[in-house]
Each structure stands twice: as C-alpha cells, then as structure tokens.
Amino acid sequence: MSEVILEVDGVIKRFDNFTAVDGVSFQVRAGETVGLLGVNGAGKTTLMNMILGLITPTGGAIRAFGMDLQKNRMEILQRANFCTTYATLPGNVKVRNNLEIFARLYSVPKPKQKVAELLDLLEISKLAEKATGQLSAGESTRVNLAKALLNDPELLLLDEPTASLDPDIADKVRKLVRHVQRERHPAILYTSHNMRDIEEVCDRVLFLHAGKILAAGTPDEITKHFQEDDLEDVFIKIARGGPVTPPKSP
Ligand SMILES: Nc1ncnc2c1ncn2[C@@H]1O[C@H](COP(=O)(O)OP(=O)(O)OP(=O)(O)O)[C@@H](O)[C@H]1O
Description:
There is one protein chain. The protein is an alpha/beta fold. The chain has two domains: 1-79 and 154-245, Rossmann fold (3-Layer(aba) Sandwich); 87-152, no CATH class. 36% of the residues lie in helices and 26% in strands. The chain has nine helices and ten strands. It has helices at 44-51, 73-78, 95-105, 111-121, 137-149, 167-184, 195-201, 219-225, 231-239; strands at 4-15, 18-29, 33-37, 59-64, 67-68, 80-84, 155-159, 187-191, 204-209, 212-217. The strands form two sheets. It has a six-stranded mixed beta sheet, sandwiched between helices. A four-stranded antiparallel beta sheet has the order 2-1-4-5, covered by helices on one side. A hairpin with a 2-residue loop joins strand 9 and strand 10 (212-217). Helix 3 (95-105) crosses helix 4 (111-121). The longest helix has 18 residues, at 167-184. The chain starts with a strand and ends in an 11-residue tail after the last helix. The chain binds adenosine-5'-triphosphate. Residues 15, 18, 20, 38, 40-46 line the site of adenosine-5'-triphosphate. InterPro entries: AAA+_ATPase, ABC_transporter-like_ATP-bd, ABC_transporter-like_CS, ABC_transporter_ATP-binding, P-loop_NTPase. This is ABC transporter ATP-binding protein. It holds the Pfam family ABC_tran. Keywords: ATP-binding, Nodulation, Nucleotide-binding, Transport.
C-alpha cells in the first residue's frame, strides 16, 4: 500500500456551543483521491480549513507527511496546495504576475516556465495579461487551480473546483484532475456538490453529516449501502432526513 499522506484523527471543531466537526477520522494515501460529500453546513469547509491550518481544531490531531500540523505547518504547506473559491488571488494584479509571485513563494524552480505550462494546461493563456479581479467566476476558478498546481503538491485540497463552471469547462477540470492523478500521484481531498465529479475522480467517498462521517467507501459501495441507484439519490436521501442506516434485508 502507498504511503499515508494525510491523517485526520478524531478531529473536533466547536464554535461556541455549536459542534461543526464532531470526531472525524480518516486517512488519504499517496495516489488516492477521497471525496468529501455532505449537505450545506455538514462541516466540509470547516474540515478543509483545519487541514490548511487556517483554523485550529478544538480536539483531535491532523498529521501530514507524518508531521503534526500544529507544529510543522510551514513544512507541510510547502508540499501541499489548495483550490477554493473562498480564497481569491489579489484582484489588481495580472493573472501571470499573480501566478509568478505564488510560484516564487513556493520556491518553484523556473517559475516563468512553470506558469506558462500551467496556463497552457488549463487553457487560460489568453487570460494571462488580464487583471485577476476582472475574471468571471469560472475563469477565476481555473486560475486558482493553476495556483494549486504550481508546487506539484503531494497533498492537494480541492474545495468545489467545478462550482460555477459550465459543463464543458467542468469536464475539462475533471480530465485535468485525472491527468494530475496519473502523472504525479498526489493525495487529493475533493469536495463537490456535483456527484458526477465524485463518481469520475474519487476512489473513495466520505459522507459527512452534521459533522460526523456517516458512511465511507467507494462510490459504488456507498450507493449499495443506501440501496439507491447512484450517489445523487443517496445525497438526496440524506439531505431529506431519510433513513441513514441501511434498511434490513427483506
Ligand atoms: N466561524 C464560524 N462560527 C460559527 N459557526 C460556524 C463558523 N464556521 C462555520 N460554522 C458553522 O459550521 C457548520 C459547518 O459549516 P461548513 O462551512 O463547514 O459547512 P459545509 O459542509 O462546507 O457547507 P457548504 O456545502 O454550504 O459549503 C455550519 O452550520 C456553519 O454555520
């Protein structure tokens, strides 16, 4: 089995008296893509933000590359990267310049060449000289994805990377993720409300509900577990408060 890259161990996050993440444990190995699913408010972003070290867990531990996140955040973040619609790049700076600045922050060798390659890979070379703040939501997502790939991360956190993309571009993003999986074998944690994304790119799925992992397995196992036709139906069942344990066999 490949190396464990990310370990989330009994992680809890409370905001005052409200528990947003309630004792979550899982691992992501090198070369594996794990989908984090859940209805609005399930705790996905809170979990991602803890893994990025942006907020501190109330309890439990997060380790990456065998190191404790609290103690080794900078070392870990040099080998990791993320794409989220919530963090935007400086708006008054041109796309190319923004990416080159981030490439230097990540100590990327030959930063100009790397940025040109990623602009080409994401088919956004024509946006290079535009101010980042003037991009459409979909363009901005692709620029954020380019940023996320600058340091060839061994741990990649993708928070709804296809939100706000049209179906054509969303399809290209899924192909790009598969390309990165094949070429570089990172550990990827991927959240999406688009079940097609999850079915196409994820090896395993964690279903988060009210801050707890309700079910874990391959998309196929989860679908069978809930006796539904596909993940979308499982999602709807959970969202509407249907039975969350598998019904007894007849
Ligand atoms: N800073 C905060 N203070 C208080 N409550 C918070 C805070 N951040 C998140 N929450 C609450 O924690 C819960 C989980 O939020 P989170 O953003 O993690 O959900 P999510 O699964 O990412 O949802 P979505 O799919 O809508 O993005 C929500 O009920 C939210 O209101």
